[in-house]
Specification:
The structure holds two protein chains of two kinds. By secondary structure, chain A is an all-alpha fold. Chain A is 73% helix and 0% strand. The A-B interface holds A 24-25, 28-29, 32-33, 37, 40-41, 43-50, 52-53, 59, 61, 68, 72, 75-76, 78-79, 82-83 and B 1, 3, 10-11, 14-15, 17-18, 20, 42, 45-46, 48-50, 52-53, 55, 57-60, 64, 67.
């Protein structure tokens, strides 16, 4: 005979939490995808890959300063998208 | 969501996220993030973006690869690339076979040439020796031979004479050590005719040279 513990049951809170998490994930994804191609590339190289601006500049084919500007513009655009 | 006014710290937030800071910088950054709500929120956003890795970076790999310098293949790779083409080439086999045949023929000819006994090939040398061998019994008048009329030059510059002499020598069976005394009268006459026909020989009698000396200046 299998005993069921209270913690095994899926609660309404868990379901709602999952939905919110999924919604938050989708919003972040949409925010990142709303970036221009260059901003998108620079933003992911910086945040997801952790490359330095110098490395990003070499990959993208631009200058270090331009890569920094692209990143900050991308970060600002993502924040604005999420705040809307 | 507002932005922290410290741009340097905001620049370094991704480095803090990926652990690319030194100990001192990391401690400073952590202290700042604990006290700055904007930086905490931005760092949390980065963590979410990083967690949602399936976002799929839109990195154009082909473009990156095209920008990279082309790798230079090593010598072994170059040989490996070339070798298969050669193995399957019919023309290459033909050329190899032709080269092998040419090599064998050249080697055989060289070997046979080197083994060939000294015979007709050195006839010119024989004749040169015969023609100009000093002999007490020779009736050939000894003209004043100039350096230009040395034995070798006679043999080389007058091929007709050489050919004729060749015949004479071959019929009489002269050896290298033979002299004019071994020749018959007919052969000697023929030889003399050929010598007479050689151009460039000086006349038998030297020309008289008259030296005029100015009386006063020459004596001084």
């Amino acid at each position: 005979m299998v005993s069921i513990e209270p913690s095994d049951a899926s609660t309404e809170y868990d379901a709602l939490d999952g939905m919110l998490a999924e919604e938050a994930e989708n919003r972040v994804i949409k925010a990142v995808k709303s970036l221009s191609p260059t901003q998108h590339e620079v933003f992911l190289l910086r945040v997801e890959q952790g490359l330095s601006y110098k490395e990003i500049a070499e990959v993208v084919g631009t200058t270090e300063g331009a890569a920094r500007v692209h990143y900050h513009h991308a970060m600002r655009a993502v924040k604005e998208f999420l705040n809307d | 969501m507002t932005e922290c006014m410290n741009a340097e710290v905001r620049d370094a937030l991704p480095d803090l996220l990926h652990g690319r800071l030194g100990d001192l910088d990391r401690a400073t950054m952590k202290a700042h993030v604990e006290s700055c709500a904007d930086c905490r929120a931005e760092l949390a956003l980065m963590e979410r973006v990083r967690a949602y890795a399936p976002l799929g970076p839109s990195i154009d790999v082909s473009r990156i690869v095209s920008m990279l310098p082309a790798p230079v293949p090593s010598a072994e790779q170059q040989v490996a690339q070339i070798a298969p083409g050669r193995q399957h080439s019919g023309m290459s086999k033909i050329w190899k076979l032709a080269a092998a045949v040419a090599l064998i023929v050249a080697g055989t000819l060289t070997f046979s040439k080197s083994r060939e006994p000294v015979s007709s090939g050195s006839t010119v040398a024989k004749i040169a020796t015969v023609v100009h061998a000093p002999s007490a019994a020779s009736e050939v008048p000894a003209p004043a031979v100039t350096p230009e009329a040395q034995p070798k030059e006679v043999a080389i510059t007058n091929p007709v004479a050489v050919a004729t002499s060749k015949r004479v020598v071959s019929t009489s069976g002269l050896s290298l050590t033979g002299g004019v005394q071994d020749l018959t009268d007919t052969q000697l006459e023929a030889l003399l005719r050929e010598v007479d026909n050689v151009e460039g020989l000086p006349t038998a009698e030297p020309e008289t040279i008259s030296v005029v000396v100015d009386g006063d200046e020459g004596l001084q």
